[in-house]
Backbone:
């Protein structure tokens, strides 16, 4: 006799706002009558923090203090102990998604689901079927995603910049010791640094002048994750995605649009809590034919807004 | 031959002399159908069978059509495409135009260079350079590599592919996508799509790029359709929607929307720009499931994002694909997208002439014109979509584009495409302006020939162009064209412009142009033969378009132009072209102008002289056909001498072609008859005699004995008609002399055909002519010619059981019976036949009777021989035929005849049932005959049958 347990959510996208009710069914599939000691459904949400390897040495002393931060943890009994008949049985459930009431200091509330390198925010529904003494309990789990409600759109904060040899800090490029820097003048513009997560990031770039052929123009989205507490912290910038917007030697004096769709799950609103921070930055990189690289960095603020 | 001793009984033939006034009571056969009616078989189920037949015929004939491998690929794909939803039923048919354009691209842009394909989904190929460097030792590395062979993520590079192999690989990828999709490996399909579009960033074999583009966009279309169809299925089930416009995001299930979003997110995270753009385009119609309003902004955005592609060739084709996708979704509304892309293209126009590109195409040994030609289909497509809306004011657009042409450097590409894309009417309106612009940049313009050609094509369609400006146009054109460096291009350009000149200018002008052409060709320093094909096109076009073909020959530059090509082969081709075009356009019945006659004579002589032992039969047939047309058309009206002279001349000129000689003989015979006008009073004037002599001399040079036979007969008959007895006799003698040489079979169209039916026909025609031929009184032999014929037949040992032999004998018997009549059945007005000549003189009659008896005897011998070799049916027929002659022509008062008739009847009855229709009719006619002799025979027959 085999038993199968699974959770199906009503909403296909599995995305929920705070205050909404998560509705779905627990499906029990059994080839025979099934006796059990009760079916429980638990909702868990937590933040996983990890330390980057390069900082491990310094942090070993207080590594213990980095424990998962619990965001939500509720549990309910779906079915009292009894018998489930042969075949497919669907048990509907509804769980309200609400932040904890009794707030401990440092509790950040319900954060948006986020998959990063050092910080992960995850929400899971877990279903557990207890069985009699000799039988193993049956478990099923299902991830769901939390998003904040959309706020009113923030005012646009456009930025413009010019990239010329003189604006480049000698230390910012890896091949800083280059004897002669090519002559170039590049103009870039980002429509707003306060970006709604559901909207693509837009702007434009124009190569007004460049004495050497350009190989590629790229747009790099970077996450900056900071973990730690008062004793010390680690701050790491890692690439989320890199998108080419210019391929080859583009025509001089033409506006090339910058356009990037922000990836789901790997981005979330810019977050600052007591224990960690998630921030985002944007790099515009111009790569010349000889792999010489010029970048310009823009910190951006991500929001869940219309 | 006539050996009576082998026959048991000897019957003397005696013919019945008919009373001249006696009404002929010819016995009749009852027939159900007319003997000349052709056989028509009516099929009841015509619709099904005939269709099947036609289909199978088509299948057979189409099997021989050599399909270009690229086109075959193309055909496969169009079949798929049909099943997909059409955007709009009304309005312009983009997909049709697209498929026609793409097949043209596939056939035009080909290469012999080696191609490279990079993919992880194809078997074989070397490992690419894109591999992680590891410090593992060799053994481990080798093992890992072996493992990698099964790992789809290892990217392989296959180099040195020929074009055809490349196509096969692409085809494989296309299949692979479908297979992956069907086996739920959707991400793999997606990856194939990305890899394919990456191939389009490779411009290493540039001249193949347009074709590569077409092949790869097919794959992308396939992928886009797969995604789209699945989403459609998810939201509408099997019912589906028939029209893209019917998809309402409100109806779309959440699941489908979510899937669609996933695809779009996946696409948006592709790192490289080119594949990302191509993939987004291929998935563009999926936006319909999310929101109707997103499509247009997305199109606008993509239009701008293409600016990021630095390589102008890649960018241009990317725009083509964007527009193609847009037209599939939006239909006619996509026009704006086309226009925007065109504008973008023009903004980036100078990028085409960028130093970097120059280095690239020169590195691939391409010339600038070849390189620019690569852009032509792309710009064409953009212009096509821009111009599709007829409501827009094309003239302003044209003006604007032309102004732009004037402003920018290197305007040839744009100008070339603009000129070919706009409709003729608009171009003609601006013709002077355009030509001026061309004139200004003549020296450095690269695609000059293409521009002028398509410009000329537009002009040549013009119905009425003001005469004044046509002249200036041509003058300016000539200034430009005569300075062109390549004679090849010059001729290419000349073709349409000459048509324009022919239709709009006077002959003098055309003549001047032709003279100029000759001068150019001589000056260019290379023999005209190198361009003979182009030359032919030019001449052909001219012949086609000039309002009156005859005028061409009246220009003094035309014939020299035609004869500019010198190699025999090219000259022949040219003469053939000119002649066939001339005759296809020539409307009146006869050619009278001496200049045209002599020019055509010259061309025909060229054709004739090119014939040699190695000439293909069909070719010489075609030549003969053309020359025949010429001979038949030439007419000197009433100047018969001139006409005959012409025929004499033609004979000497075209002696190699039998078919022409035959025509000549016929023509001369016709001439000979035409002169008398039917009234032979002049009794053989000099012309008639000359004509007869001509024929008599011409015929022997033919090869085919049958034709000779026929022509001798015909010429003899004509001579007889003109009362040239001597000539007629000569012809007939020649005919008889020829009979032994006739083969049993002749080769006709490669098949052996028996001759006896034709010979029998000719002989019976001949025999009936002999009835009126007056006897040669100089010879001491009566019925001189006939006796000659009989002697010849004796001499040539025909097989006696051959139907040809005995039926000829029967016919001779008929003739002999007729010859014995006091007044012959027919006469020629001016010719005194034997009835008048001899007046049934007894000596003459006895000679004839003697012949008849011998023939009859011989027939009896044949009858016996037929019985010996058990040819019952033939024997039966011959017996009946002979019986028929006995009762019809024989004098039944004579005892031998009576018994001969009775015996023949008995024989026939013995051989076969008397119920035979033929036999019964004969008996019936005998019964109806009131003559006592007939009654007696009937009586005898009845007695015999009883006993």
Residues:
């Amino acid at each position: 006799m085999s038993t199968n347990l699974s959770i199906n959510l009503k909403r296909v996208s599995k995305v929920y706002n705070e205050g909404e009710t998560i509705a779905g069914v627990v499906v029990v599939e059994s080839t025979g009558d099934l006796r059990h000691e009760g079916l429980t459904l638990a909702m868990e949400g937590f933040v996983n923090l990890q330390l980057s390897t390069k900082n491990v040495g310094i942090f070993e002393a207080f590594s213990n203090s980095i424990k998962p931060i619990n965001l939500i943890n509720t549990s309910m009994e779906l079915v009292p102990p009894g018998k489930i008949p042969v075949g497919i049985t669907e048990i509907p459930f509804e769980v309200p998604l609400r932040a904890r009431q009794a707030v401990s200091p440092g509790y950040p509330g319900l954060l948006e689901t986020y998959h990063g390198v050092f910080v992960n925010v995850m929400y899971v529904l877990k279903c557990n079927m207890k069985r009699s003494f000799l039988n193993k309990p049956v478990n099923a789990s299902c991830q769901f995603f939390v998003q904040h409600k959309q706020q009113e759109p923030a005012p646009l904060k456009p930025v413009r910049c010019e990239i010329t040899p003189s604006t480049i800090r000698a230390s910012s490029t890896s091949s800083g010791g280059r004897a002669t820097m090519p002559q170039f003048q590049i103009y870039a513009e980002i429509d707003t640094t306060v970006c709604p997560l559901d909207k693509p990031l837009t702007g434009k770039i124009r190569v007004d002048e460049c004495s050497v052929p350009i190989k590629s123009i790229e747009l790099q989205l970077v996450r900056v994750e900071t973990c730690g507490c008062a004793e010390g912290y680690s701050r790491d910038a890692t690439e989320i995605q890199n998108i080419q917007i210019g391929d080859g030697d583009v025509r001089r004096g033409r506006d090339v649009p910058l356009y990037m769709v922000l990836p789901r799950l790997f981005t979330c609103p810019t977050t600052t809590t007591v224990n960690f921070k998630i921030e985002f930055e944007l790099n515009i990189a111009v790569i010349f034919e000889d792999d010489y690289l010029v970048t310009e960095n823009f910190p951006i603020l991500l929001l869940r807004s219309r | 031959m006539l050996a009576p001793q082998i026959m048991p009984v000897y019957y003397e033939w005696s013919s019945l002399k008919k009373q001249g006034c006696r009404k002929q009571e010819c016995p009749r056969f009852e027939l159900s159908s007319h003997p000349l009616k052709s056989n028509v078989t009516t099929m009841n189920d015509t619709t099904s069978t005939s269709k099947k037949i036609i289909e199978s015929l088509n299948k057979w004939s189409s099997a021989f059509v050599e399909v270009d491998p690229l086109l075959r690929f193309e055909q496969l794909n169009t079949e798929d495409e049909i099943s997909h939803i059409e955007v709009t039923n009304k309005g312009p048919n983009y997909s049709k135009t697209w498929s026609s354009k793409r097949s043209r691209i596939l056939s035009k842009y080909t290469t012999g260079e080696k191609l490279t394909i990079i993919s992880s989904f194809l078997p074989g190929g070397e490992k690419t350079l894109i591999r992680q460097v590891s410090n593992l030792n060799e053994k481990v590395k080798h093992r890992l590599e072996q493992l990698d062979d099964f790992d789809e993520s290892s990217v392989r590079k296959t180099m040195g592919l020929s074009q055809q192999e490349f196509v096969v690989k692409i085809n494989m990828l296309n299949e692979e996508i479908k297979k992956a999709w069907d086996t739920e490996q959707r991400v793999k399909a997606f990856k194939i799509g990305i890899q394919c579009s990456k191939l389009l960033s490779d411009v290493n074999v540039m001249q193949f790029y347009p074709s590569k583009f077409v092949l790869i966009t097919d794959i992308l279309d396939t992928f886009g359709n797969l995604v789209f169809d699945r989403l459609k299925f998810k939201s509408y089930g099997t019912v589906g929607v028939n029209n893209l416009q019917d998809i309402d995001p409100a109806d779309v299930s959440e699941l489908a929307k979510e899937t669609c979003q996933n695809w779009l997110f996946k696409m948006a995270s592709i790192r490289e720009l080119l594949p990302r753009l191509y993939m987004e385009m291929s998935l563009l119609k999926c936006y319909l499931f999310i929101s109707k309003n997103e499509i247009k902004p997305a199109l606008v955005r993509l239009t701008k994002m293409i600016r990021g592609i630095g390589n102008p060739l890649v960018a241009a084709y990317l725009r083509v694909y964007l527009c193609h996708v847009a037209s599939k979704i939006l239909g006619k509304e996509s026009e704006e997208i086309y226009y925007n892309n065109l504008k973008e293209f023009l903004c980036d126009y100078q990028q085409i002439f960028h130093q970097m590109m120059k280095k690239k195409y020169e590195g691939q040994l391409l010339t600038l014109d070849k390189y620019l030609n690569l852009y032509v289909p792309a710009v064409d497509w953009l212009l096509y979509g821009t111009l599709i809306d007829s409501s827009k004011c094309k003239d302003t657009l044209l003006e604007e584009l032309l102004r732009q042409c004037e402003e920018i450097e290197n305007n040839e590409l744009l100008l070339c495409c603009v000129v070919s894309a706009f409709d003729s009417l608009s171009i003609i309106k601006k013709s002077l302006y355009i030509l001026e612009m061309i004139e200004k940049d003549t020296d450095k313009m690269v695609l000059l020939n293409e521009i002028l050609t398509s410009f000329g094509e537009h002009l040549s369609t013009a119905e009425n162009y003001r005469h004044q400006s046509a002249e200036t146009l041509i003058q300016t054109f000539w200034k430009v064209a005569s300075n062109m460096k390549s004679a090849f291009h010059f001729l290419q350009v000349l073709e349409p412009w000459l048509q324009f000149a022919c239709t709009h200018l006077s002959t003098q002008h055309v003549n001047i142009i032709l003279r100029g052409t000759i001068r150019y060709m001589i000056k260019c320093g290379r023999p005209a033969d190198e361009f003979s094909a182009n030359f032919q096109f030019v001449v052909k076009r001219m012949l086609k378009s000039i309002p009156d073909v005859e005028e061409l020959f009246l220009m003094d530059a035309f014939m020299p132009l035609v004869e500019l090509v010198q190699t025999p082969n090219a000259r022949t081709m040219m003469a053939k072209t000119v002649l066939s075009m001339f005759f296809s356009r020539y409307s009146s019945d006869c050619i009278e102008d001496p200049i045209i006659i002599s020019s055509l004579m010259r061309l025909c002589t060229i054709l004739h002289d090119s014939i040699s032992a190695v000439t293909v039969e069909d070719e010489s047939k075609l030549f003969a056909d053309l020359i025949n047309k010429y001979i038949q058309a030439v007419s000197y009206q009433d100047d018969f001498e001139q006409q005959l002279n012409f025929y004499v001349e033609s004979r000497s000129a075209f002696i190699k072609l039998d078919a022409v000689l035959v025509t000549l003989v016929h023509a001369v015979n016709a001439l000979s008859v035409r002169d008398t006008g039917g009234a032979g009073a002049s009794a053989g004037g000099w012309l008639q005699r000359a004509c007869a002599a001509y024929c008599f001399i011409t015929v022997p040079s033919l090869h085919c004995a049958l034709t000779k036979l026929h022509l001798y007969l015909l010429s003899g008959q004509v001579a007889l008609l003109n009362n040239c007895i001597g000539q007629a006799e000569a012809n007939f003698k020649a005919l008889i002399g020829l009979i032994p040489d006739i083969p049993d079979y002749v080769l006709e169209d490669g098949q052996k055909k028996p001759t006896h039916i034709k010979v029998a026909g000719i002989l019976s025609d001949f025999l009936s002519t002999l009835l009126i031929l007056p006897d040669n009184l100089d010879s001491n032999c009566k019925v001189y010619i006939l006796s000659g014929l009989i002697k010849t037949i004796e001499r040539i040992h025909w097989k006696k059981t051959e139907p040809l032999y005995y039926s000829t004998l029967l016919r001779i018997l008929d003739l002999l019976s007729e010859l014995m009549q006091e007044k012959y059945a027919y006469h020629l007005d001016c010719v005194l036949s034997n009835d008048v000549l001899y007046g049934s003189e007894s000596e003459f009659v006895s000679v004839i009777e003697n012949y008849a008896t011998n023939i009859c005897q011989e027939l009896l011998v044949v009858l016996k021989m037929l019985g010996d070799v058990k040819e019952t049916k033939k024997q039966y027929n011959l017996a009946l035929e002979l019986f028929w002659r006995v009762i019809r022509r024989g004098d039944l008062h004579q005892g031998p005849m009576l018994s001969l008739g009775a015996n023949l009847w008995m024989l026939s009855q013995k051989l076969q049932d008397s119920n035979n229709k033929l036999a019964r009719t004969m008996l019936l006619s005998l019964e109806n005959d009131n003559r006592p002799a007939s009654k007696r025979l009937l009586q005898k027959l009845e007695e015999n049958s009883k006993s």
Q: What stands out?
A: The mean pLDDT of chain B is 80. Residues 209-236 of chain B form the longest helix (28 residues).
